[in-house]
Amino acid sequence: MLRLRPYKNCDAKTIVTWCRDEVSFRKWSSDRWESFPITADDMNKKYVDYNGDCMDADNFYPMTGFDDDGIVGHFIMRFTDEKKTILRLGFVIVDDSKRGMGYGKEMLELALKYSFEILKVEKVTLGVFDNNMPAYYCYKAVGFREAEMAEEGSCNICGETWKILELEIEKREYEDR
User: Fold this and answer.
1) For residue 147, which of 163, 126, 129, 130 has the smallest C-alpha distance?
2) How many Cα neighbours within 13 Å face the side chain of 161?
3) How many helices and strands (H and E) does the chain possess?
4) Which end of the chain is less congested by CB atoms within 10 angstroms, N or C?
C-alpha cells in the first residue's frame, strides 16, 4: 500500500538516483537545475530556496511516496494564487525501477485526495513535456485534462525545443470520477 508523507532531506539521496541520463532528468526537472547530474545537497538546497526565498513557508509542500519497501515516488505541491485555491504539482517522479507498475497513478490519486479533501483547493494543475507520453497518460488516467492556454509554452532542453502541455483537474471533475 502506497502512502504519502512530507519530504525529508534524507530522501534526496535516493530520489536523485532515479534519473540516470540527462533526458530523463530534464523530463522530471525541466530547466530548474543548471547542470546534470545533481546531488542530494543540490536538491535540498533548491527546496530550501523555494521555501525560504521564493515562497512563503506555507506555500510549498514537497511530498514523498513510500511503501513497505521504502521510497517509491516524489512530487512537490505549491499554491499559485493568493487565495490558495489553485495548487500546482511539480517534480513528479517515480523510482525508475518501478515505473509501469501503477505507483505513479496511485501516488497521484493520493496527491489529488490530499489537495481536494485536506487543502480544499478548487483546481490542481501540472505541466508535462509532449515527449513524455508515459507521464502524460498517467496524468490523464487519474483525471487530468489538457488546459486551454492563451499561448503555447516550451523550453529549450538538450538543444531541442520541448513543448509543454498544461493539464488540470477541477474539484467537481475529481468528485465526479
Assistant:
1) 126
2) 4
3) 6, 8
4) N
For the chain, residues with pLDDT lower than 70 are 50-57
Would the pTM of this model clear 0.90, i.e. be above it? yes
- Max intra-chain CA distance, the chain: 44
Phi then psi for 21, rounded to 5 degrees?
-140, 165
Between the CA of residue 7 and those of 14, 22, 28, 95, what are the distances in Å?
12, 23, 17, 15
Q: Map 56-111 to HEC letters.
A: CCCCEEEEEEEECCEEEEEEEEEECCCCCCEEEEEEEEECHHHCCCCHHHHHHHHH
